[in-house]
Amino acid sequence: MDTDATTTTDAFEERLVRALNESGLMLLLSLGHRTGLLEAMAGAAPETSSALAARTGLDERYVREWLGGMVASGIVENDPQTGNYWLPEAHAQLLTNAGPVNLAVYSQFIAILANVEDDVVRCFHEGGGVPYSRYPRFQEVMASDSAQTVLPALFDGILPLAEGLPERLDRGIHVLDCACGRGRALMAMAERYPTSRFVGYDLSEEAIAWARQETEKAGLGNLTFEVRDLSDFDITAEPAAYDLVTTFDGIHDQAKPRSLLKGIHRTLAPDGIYLVQDIHASSHHHLDREHPLGTMLYAVSVSHCMTVSLAQGGEGLGTMWGRERALAYLEEAGFRDIEVHQLEHDFQNDYFVCRK
């Protein structure tokens, strides 16, 4: 018997069992996030499942079973003598809005992506892709993601990457955000820089409807949104119309990313700046083994970003298209001055500052 092989098999089996458990934890965290249970437990005194259910207006039997999973996973503590449960402060700091980042937000991706598994399996056999319409909550979760990665660093970290950009925004420039989703970054900029004008384009009617409603509520008269397919932007983009163009995690799932990038180059003023946030990765699979979220991001790619692009007859770049390919595409689009940055708080993304 090959002892080394047995040891390796045993270790791999342990890894798979751990992975099954952690996958279950992600589903439980998503339920806890969406029902408000995690937020309700943050900073609260120990209490029974009945008390927690009554306080949150939820069904006690479901709350009790969820608490069982949380205890089994080591996330929630309980006292068998009193029947009380509590969420340790150290855990609440990472799973609720009590801390600097709410990682429970990301657990929602598991359920969203699992919901289209049958569609993706069909695509493995037949090709093609899964249409954008099959992901009704994706924009909502992405907006929550953006609220934790982009928005907190937008004014102090991201915009200053381009020298002199905050000052230009203060004086007043014309700004376009392509693939803007729900447009939360645009709303923040429009409020901060009232003398600048802002436009957001996205393919999702749901996202744009939400953005328009929130913009109207906020009274932001310098911001407009438009539902727009950007696959022909290289032809339809208004020449030299914008001083700043941004894309936040918006290139890799486009049907025709090359056309969008060429259109962005076309629509930039001669002294314009294109600011890009996209996934930090390599364009070579073997180099992604050390990526702290590599496996998860490939899962997101197969089940959303790549397949959504292919559903439009697109290129299907995928989430993990990588820095090398990104630089090649930017150069092909006509950009000659390209800087690449990473921010200390955000290991998941690269930030490109591009000029003509």
Feature tags:
methyltransferase activity; 2 domains; 16% strand; 7-stranded mixed sheet; Arc Repressor Mutant, subunit A; Rossmann fold; alpha/beta; 356 residues; Class I SAM-dependent methyltransferase; two-stranded antiparallel sheet
Summarize the structure in words.
With 356 residues, the protein is an alpha/beta fold. The protein has two domains: 3-101, Arc Repressor Mutant, subunit A (Orthogonal Bundle); 115-355, Vaccinia Virus protein VP39 (Rossmann fold). The protein contains 16 helices and nine strands. It has helices at 3-35, 37-41, 49-56, 60-72, 89-95, 104-114, 117-126, 138-149, 154-158, 165-171, 184-192, 205-218, 233-236, 257-267, 294-311, 323-333, and strands at residues 77-79, 84-86, 174-178, 197-202, 223-227, 242-248, 268-279, 337-343, 346-355. Strands 5-4-3-6-7-9-8 form a seven-stranded mixed β-sheet, with helices on both faces. A two-stranded antiparallel ribbon has the order 1-2. α6 packs antiparallel against α8. The longest helix is centred in the N-terminal third of the chain and has 33 residues, at 3-35. Keywords: Methyltransferase, Transferase. Pfam families: Methyltransf_31, WHD_Rv2258c.
